[in-house]
Design brief:
By secondary structure, this protein is α/β, with parallel strands linked by helices. The protein is built from nine helices and 14 strands.
Length: 262
């Protein structure tokens, strides 16, 4: 099976122009077939503030009312997605920006929760891995934003970590998939303020203990939940680390970040 790297880049890196350009260069220079998935939460939040639209988060996930959905679609599928595509094209990568609605790649359902109204948040139902595979075969590098649809004309805001995980699972049937989550930390840390507290490897049992201890919280929880679920469903490996280390993370002869174990 061919190797495929699915790489999700965090919003804090996107917000830093120098960090983003450095990441894009390393991404472009790395060999092999790749898919890039991005978020962009800070930009959406700043725009919402300017427009006077209140924002709320629950366990790292954004509550998405009708007005917030408009902002998410404009920022994620528009500004951020096309900026990243343009930077990749400048580095010689034939990139194509996509939402889940494009080519009907990612269908989601509006989330139903017994205690919280998440609004227009989507939970993924299925991924059209064949459609994505055809793009890869044509030498195209897909760049996914965190917007999906329900096939009835409704756009939905879906966690970018979840999208990366779902793509990895769907494509693991045809590829040996390595899923990488890149952000502004070296990996999963025992102490979020101490970069020297990097956890080099982690099992699901160890993860649960860290959550109980409060060492892992907020946005890291959905990231790790998605990662372990991806491994359970056939993804070869998952590595979480610093965006500056992406070339090391996808090099078999080097180590960086936190590797998750089954």
């Amino acid at each position: 099976m061919k190797k495929l790297f699915i790489i999700k880049i965090g919003g804090n890196v996107i917000d830093d122009a120098d960090a983003l350009e450095k990441f894009i260069r390393q991404f472009a220079q790395s060999p092999g077939q790749k898919i890039l998935v991005h978020g962009g939460g800070k930009i959406a939040t700043e725009l919402a503030d300017k427009l006077g639209i209140p924002q709320a988060m629950v366990n790292g996930r954004r509550i998405t009312d009708a007005e917030t959905l408009k902002i998410a679609a404009m920022v994620y599928a528009g500004l951020v997605n096309k900026q990243i595509v343009a930077l990749l094209q400048a580095e010689g990568v034939n990139a194509l920006g996509l939402s889940g609605a494009d080519m009907n790649v990612i269908k989601a359902n509006k989330r139903v929760h017994p205690g919280i109204d998440f609004g227009f948040v989507g939970d993924i139902e299925n991924v059209n891995g064949d459609a994505v595979g055809k793009l890869l075969e044509e030498g195209i590098t897909p760049v996914f934003c965190p917007i999906t649809h329900d096939k009835n004309g409704q756009l939905l805001n879906t966690n970018a970590d979840t999208i990366a995980s779902a793509l990895a699972v769907a494509l693991s049937k045809k590829y040996e998939v390595q899923l990488n989550y890149c952000f502004e930390k070296k990996g999963v840390l025992k102490n979020v303020d101490d970069e020297d507290s990097l956890i080099e490897t982690m099992t699901k049992a160890e993860y649960k203990k860290l959550v109980e201890q409060g060492a892992v919280s907020k946005g890291m929880i959905p990231k790790l939940d998605n990662s372990f679920e991806a491994i359970r469903k056939g993804v070869s490996s998952v590595v979480i680390g610093h965006a500056d280390d992406i070339s090391k993370m996808i090099n078999e002869n080097e180590k960086a970040g936190t590797e998750l174990l089954a």
